[in-house]
Amino acid sequence: MMRRKVFIPLVMAMLCLLTACGSKEKEGQDQKASLTIWGDADNQAVLEPAFTKINEKFSEENPDIKINYQYSGSLDSINVALQSDSLPDLFWVQGNKSTKMAEMAKNGYLLPIEDQNYDRFTDEALEYGTVDGKIYCSLPSFISFVTFYYNKDIFDEAGVKVPTTWEEFVKVSETLKEKNVTPIALGGNGDFDRYWYIQATAASLSTNDIESIMENGAQGDWEELADVFDNFQKFSEDGMFGKDFISTDGNGAKLQFTNGQAAMTVDGTWNSKSYFESGMNIGTFNLPGKDGKKYAQSGPNNMNTYAISKKTKHPQAAMKYIEFLNSKEAQQIIADETGEVPMYKDIEIQDEKVKMLGDFDEVGSNIYNKFSQIATETSKPQDLLLTSILPDLMQNKIDSKQAVDLLKEELEK
Amino acid sequence: MDRNKGYIEKIVNLIMWFSASFILFVLGYLVYNSFRSKSDVMTNTLGKPSGLSLDNYIKLFVNERFEKYFFNSLLILIFAVVLLIFLSSFVAYGLGRYRFRGNKILRVFFLIGMMFPIQLGIVPIFLMIKGIGLIDSYASVILILGTAISMPVLMLTEFFSQLPDEVYEAATLDGAGEFRIFFSIMFPMAQPVVFSVCLINSVNIWNQFFIPLIFLQTDTKKTVPQLVVKFTGNLFTNMDSALSASVLSTVPILILFIIFSKKVLSGFMGGAVKG
Amino acid sequence: MLKNKKTYLFFIIPGLFFYALFVVYPIFSAAQISLFKWNGIGEKVFVGFQNYIELFTNPILLGQFGNALKNSLIIFIMTACFMIPLQIIYAYMIYSKTRGSKLLQSIIFSPQFISTPVIVFIFTLLLDSNIGAINNFFSKIGLNFLVKPWLGLPSIGIYIVWLMISWAGFGVGMMYFIAAMNMISTDSLESAYLDGAGFWKRLLLIVVPQIRNTIFNLILISYITAMTIFDYSYILGGVSGGVDGSVDVMSLFFYRIAFGDNNPLGGNLSENSMGMGTTIAVSLFFIIFIVAVFQMILVFRKDDING
């Protein structure tokens, strides 16, 4: 008997809840244009302070537009919304970093963005947002790339200096190794954790090769790229990444470095805040190439790139939001709040450490991004590189010559 | 009478305590690290901590309003579990007590829900929920989680089919209706199992991430796992909050569990059948 | 079991209705995608069973399929052979109110509540070769040969995955067994005590036969779990399933093909990601379904003999 007494009121309450929520959905249509925006759920922790300010500012300047900013835009939820025709007015996109935005644009899910002033932006940024000659999102303004973090105390103790040429970098690593210090902490167990090292070396050593692959495909001798693979294999073999790095995961490698058990680590600029705030004596440098120039890697990030759904009821209000994201004002807020490295000179960098991150002469080619741009249905050089070539090189199963041949084979498919 | 006096019992008991203390050790290490500052864990992982503090926890309540997420999770949990147990014990009773054509087929049919990745079926569900206007409501998540009855039906059917017929027959002779028999006799008899099913499914619902992710869009409606994922997305940067949020999402449910575990252990049946 | 009028319908229909609507209909609705070539966004092209033919003839796909299935089966077999017997023994001890049974039960069940990434992270903190507390302990007491990057060794990768799944999920099976034991008649157990039957005799001859169907059910559940679990493999080995696919499992294989290129660097959307992904999911469904039907037949036959 007792069971029934509990059950029935609960079921009743549930029905009330169902109907109550159902009716609430209908209201809310007033004169104000209301924009629902889906922010990047996966990077909420990083972006939240910046976008809170951006939205405040935008609401101040546009009192007739109501912003409903939600961190609901995971790749999964955008997928579901897309397939069930329920996209929000605006949502973040990855531009040309993935083929998704292009697919959405081609299939008529997105509103092309018009009447914006693009004087400030570089060709790379414009390319990021363009599909078939039209621009479909607010343009990127920050780059994320991989940089070298080093422990100043260990460097001092070993008597080595920040390398200014590629040869010096190799020499520094060797010197550290001789002094029984693990030169570079690297998580060999994770696809991306181990790839970061290649992203840095490939940009610094083989930008020419990558660009020629982009244009000519599998032709050419790819000596620079062979050097990159050679170095990775040799460093793996010589223990430059530590003795068990093949089975160390990304977090393990980072902690190895922050615990002072390795002199350097390769990691994204997106993690810089954690390193800088750790209280350690940490510096960063961007890897010099054989020409002695310091390289970052191309890679506009999607912090402020948003697209408009074609179904939006307030296209003009949505355009205004895009315009605001394209403005220096909004981008300055992101720079101040996140410590990201801006792509344009007019955005001021407050933090000395971010200036250090931004200390590079050239932006080299991002091998993964470039490869995925030329990938086709049957040939996916970026996946081959990530999940097959790098682990095999690391374990000494293939040499650089074979690695190059494998890539060529894939590209010729 | 002490029934555990055999030496095998003593050894097994010892092994159990050993494994329990390993679990406690791991959990303890988790809790211990949640009281350390991020930079301390980062730069001095193994050494003596520079100090333990509640900062990570305070941050969760002040910056993230953890209690809000917690309340949402609790609300969804309670309603979903009630719906789940209500539906599944009915179905299980129907399947377990009655013999009819198609019984076997139905039993397998009720298992299908466990065999297919939910990520694929999500679009049709989404369209349905959208059709009844429940997107971004607790009700959507409750409905979806509360109707995934495959596992409880499997376990409960087994138990209902084992209940002795005599009890049922005696009740029928008393002139009690079918539903009364179910509510006042059969359901209470299955209590130990119902409690276990309840607990295990509570944990599943509590840990559910994907369904709330798709259906709850407003920040104020999100659940604890969604908050935890916000930190675990980049664990290295947010390890302080990730650890403390994990502890906080575990402890209250664990207390609830300890309270309930008495019921699970009560060994209800022994007396009931004999009497 | 009762042979009875149509009363059973009243019990089954509410559950059947909601379950069919929210669980079964979406599955079948999604399953038809496997007959199309589709990337999830663009146009759907009907291709019949071409996706299935592709899956079982393309050497790369088939190789990954085989490897993932093998690893999933390893997880299942390890669970069935080691975890389930241990769960039964533990459950029996708690059922017979061994010293501290309530506390033991709670402790053993508790890892269930912690999210997988945090579990993996805490194991990293314990077992990493450089900063792991346990490895540090080993090296301090001179057992240097035990100092290993345990979580990442490719040769034992899938067993590590299994151990972590078991560490976190041990309590679930145990709880079901305790519940099952609470339902059995105590008469036979009483007399066994009076006869002075030992621990194993009581457990194997009296308890186990009476919870037989629960054991079958849990074997089925662990089979389904082994086929559908993927978060540990995903976190430990990334979307590719670790070096040489050492921790790849069936669900991760499905995820990789259907959504795999979703990553912070962008990547590519396969022309047929959803089509092929669904094909894998449907194949996985049948791999599970056949075993479930077999199990039902097995359990039922025994029921009929008893009844």
Automatic annotation (TrEMBL), chain A:
Record's keyword terms, sorted: Cell membrane, Lipoprotein, Membrane, Palmitate, Signal
Pfam families per the UniProt record, alphabetical: SBP_bac_1 (PF01547)
Stretch forming the signal peptide: 1-25
Statement: the UniProt record of this protein carries the keyword Transferase: no
Protein name, UniProt field: Sugar ABC transporter substrate-binding protein
Automatic annotation (TrEMBL), chain B:
Primary subcellular site in the record, as a coarse category: membrane
GO process terms (BP): transmembrane transport
Taxonomy, superkingdom: Bacteria
Secretion signal, residue range per the UniProt entry: none
Classification via CDD domains: TM_PBP2
Subcellular localization(s) per the UniProt record: Cell membrane
Family, similarity comment: Belongs to the binding-protein-dependent transport system permease family.
Protein name: ABC transmembrane type-1 domain-containing protein
Biological classification of the source: Bacteria, Bacillati, Bacillota, Bacilli, Lactobacillales
UniProtKB/TrEMBL annotation, chain C:
Principal subcellular localization: membrane
Keyword tags: Cell membrane, Membrane, Transmembrane, Transmembrane helix, Transport
Species this protein is from: Vagococcus elongatus
Keyword NAD: no
Name of this chain's protein: ABC transmembrane type-1 domain-containing protein
Membrane topology per record: Multi-pass membrane protein
Domain (ABC transmembrane type-1): residue spans on this chain: 69-297
InterPro entries in UniProt: MetI-like (IPR000515), MetI-like_sf (IPR035906), UgpAE/MalFG_permease (IPR050809)
The keyword Iron is annotated on this UniProt entry: no
Gene3D superfamilies recorded: MetI-like
Localization terms from the record: Cell membrane
GO BP term, example: transmembrane transport
Family: Belongs to the binding-protein-dependent transport system permease family.
Signal peptide annotation: none
Superkingdom, natural source: Bacteria
SUPFAM superfamilies cross-referenced by the UniProt entry: MetI-like
Gene Ontology, cellular component aspect: plasma membrane
Transmembrane segments: 7-28, 73-95, 107-127, 156-179, 215-235, 280-300
Pfam family of the protein (one): BPD_transp_1
PROSITE patterns tied to this protein: ABC_TM1 (PS50928)
Upper taxonomic lineage: Bacteria, Bacillati, Bacillota, Bacilli, Lactobacillales
